[in-house]
Amino acid sequence: MKKFLVIGNPIEHSLSPKLHNYWIKKNNINAIYEKQNVDKKDLKDLISKVRVGEVDGINVTVPFKKTVIPYLDELTYEAKNTQSVNTIYLNNKKAVGHNTDINGFETSIQKSKFNLQNKNVFILGAGGVAPSIIFALNKMKVSKIYICNRTKEKAENLKNLFKNLNVVDWGDIPNFDLIINATSLGLKKKDKMNLDFSRIGKYKLFYDVIYNPKETNFLKSGKDLGNMAVNGKLMFIYQAFSAFYIWHGIKPDINEDVYKLLD
Ligand code: ATR
Question: What is the CA(140)–ligand 1 centre distance, in A?
Answer without folding.
Answer: 25
